[in-house]
Amino acid sequence: MGRKLISQMTFFDFVIGVSLGSLAANLAIGTGNAVVTATTALITLAIWELVTGFINIKSFKARKLFDSEPVALIDSGKIVEDNMRRMRLTMSELSMKLREKNIFSFADVEFAIMETDGQLSVLPKSNKVPLTPAHMNIQPTSSGLMSDIIIDGNIMKENLKSAGLNVEWLQSQLNMQSIKNASELFYAGVDANKNLYISKKNAGNVESYGKYGIE
Q1: Which H, E and C letters describe the chain, residue by residue?
Q2: Model-level pTM?
Q3: Chain segment 163-206, per-residue pLDDT in tens
Q4: Which domain holds residue 106?
């Protein structure tokens, strides 16, 4: 039924998810006719979700009907009172949602939009946006996605080959860091620029109280 149902859900997705859970519970503990009824309802509801999902893709009007539409709470730096009332949102709640986006002043916000899944999207004012390489006309080199090369001492040869590397290259890199064998590593990964990241196994080391966390 897709990943959306278990990630950022709209209200419609939430209702479908709760209903499926209730039906599954009846199916698990029900007897006799209850099992047949729950099974029929479960299949019907699943089909209905798939059908409405397809209609959502094809029809903008249906998408607005099922999922509503984003609502601007702050527009061009001004709080939209009518939309705040529509969303039943208090100023304290709006402040909390802005703080979750690391914004602590309404004066820093150009637009704040309540999405259909209940999340708040925020566009800071241009003078409050963090400086990026693009602002300085600098073209940084992308490191790409990191490929897993060693996991728990085992060399992932397929990933190594996909990265355009071989075991000899890997061994030479390990030798440069005084590592004789891949079995000494818990993890190793390489990015698109052939930069190798490694993490050794810590087996045999005694963890002191609170060493790896606040306890």
Answers
A1: CCCHHHCCCCHHHHHHHHHHHHHHHHHHHCCCHHHHHHHHHHHHHHHHHHHHHHHHHHCHHHHHHHHCCCEEEEECCEECHHHHHHCCCCHHHHHHHHHCCCCCCHHHEEEEEECCCCCEEEEECHHHCCCCHHHHCCCCCCCCCCEEEEECCEECHHHHHHCCCCHHHHHHHHHHCCCCCHHHEEEEEECCCCCEEEEECCCCCCCCCCCCCCC
A2: 0.54
A3: 899 999 999 999 999 998 899 999 999 998 889 999 988 755 55
A4: 71-128
